[in-house]
Fold this protein.
Amino acid sequence: MTTSTTTPAGSAIAPRRRRADDVAGLGTVRAGIFVAPALILIGIFLLFPAVWTIWLGMTDYRLTGLQAASPEFVGLDNYVEALTDPSFWNSLWLTLIFVLFSGIIGQTFIGFGLAWSVRNIHGWTKGLIEGLVLAAWVIPASVASFLWLVLLDRRSGTINGLLGTEGTAWLIDHPMQSIIIFNIWVGTAFSMQLFSSALSAVPPSQIESAKMVGASGWQQLRDVIVPNIKGHILTNTLLITLWTFNTFTPYLVTAGGPNGKTEILSVYIYETAIPGGQLGLGAAISLIMLLINLVIALAYVRVSKGRNKR
Amino acid sequence: MTATPVRKVAANATVRHFLARVAFALIMTIVGLLFALPLVWLVLAPFDATPSLSLSWPDWTLDNFARLAENPYALRSIGNSLLLGIGTMIIVVVLGALAAYAMSRIRIPGRDGILYGLLLLSSIVTGTAAMVPTFQIITQLGLINSYAGVILVLAGGILPTVIFILKDFMDSIPKSYEESARLYGAGPFRILRDVVAPIARPGLAFISIWTIVQVWGNFLVPFILLRSPDLQPAAVLMYTFYTESGQADLRLISTFALLFSAPVLIIYFVVNRRYGFRFHGGIKS
């Protein structure tokens, strides 16, 4: 189709080339029929919600009552309400802390540390460490959160037993720290695996020559390893940021409590829209979340394109 | 005489190096323990006659599994999870394979752009960011509290990744097979069924397993869209188990947790052994 007018001989060449490509004789129409159902489903449940959020965010839609039957257009009222509500800013701030400490710092550094410490060992220790970390990432979120509720239990939790801090209610006294550590536990596997493969791709000759000139472990890390895996670090950081920003799992541990101290953005939207019934306001906050996602995802695309070109 | 300061510096560096190593090893051991503790409880508590919240060597028994088998809610929820997983899998594999095949064999202008766009979209419109419009759409469609709603939403979210992976797979199938099938007079549907599908079987199997794993662990979508307790999958029931029932029945919950986790753990480790990092790498979200 596209090449048919490019050259004088194009009309003769193009159909043949097309046929050579379309070996099953599918034809454009049938191909369209093959693609359509998937695209329709994606359109309704992925593309449409994104657009619908914009409209919904400008109505006073509620779960019950008069506004449920006939919602009215309220323009930017929801956005004004959200942006002037201290609890929204509080939630955004909590999300920032959560993403920074559990994702960017925690998962990245511990993931790298684990990859680094098992890089030269083989056999069961390596398998055991990687297996444990991977298992934490694989088991369903509901189970993972329950395991942490058990571990941190006030009366007879294992952590209190080990630390000799009987009676400490971690989830009430240190709720944010608790979900940060919980999320590190759940998500570190990705960084560990990514850095493992990155480290194995660093040319050994460079490390050898660094050792020859007497570079210490720290210097090797800074001058040889990090420059080599810079691209991986960036990719890892962006993906982790996106995923941590969008996770709902901390809700299973603290349900946003106590007193909203762990009400990160995803939990805040849920609480506002579904139990709170304010769908319009919830949608307005959703749109803010979608826009932040868009920024992170576009940054990721730029980075990965740049890396592929190299 | 002049050599002493140099040696001293070298000795200091060695000591410091040694201490740094010990500190690093110590930190990593603590981290390793922290990773192990919850998992050890998960594996041991179900076999303990009287499981407690603290970690202890079990008083071995299989009674808990027998008791779980008698609990109608627990078993039903596992069945519900399977139903949701298989339902989503069928939609995703059939629609994904058709779309990926057509995209692989027919030149659509800007095809790669469309694919990347879809993939980007699926990472932006996540379950959490889109929960309000999704809830709204499903309510409008009258699919609230039904499996159809949950399955459609899950399938819509998963499909872009599936098409992306399967198209890669279809691209690698040599076209000569289809050419020769065509020479013998096979039509496109026949070719798809008898030539392409069998060759693409590893890719389709991978997608099927991956989809089931995704749905198996998903909490948010069924949590929002399903209201009746008897429809809820294990991921949601697990959560209500210990919040609504005040006193937690640890024998039941711990056994249920293990039974619910075991399938995905087994699948992941088997597949990981066979396919390596690519599988669990960018994919699980």
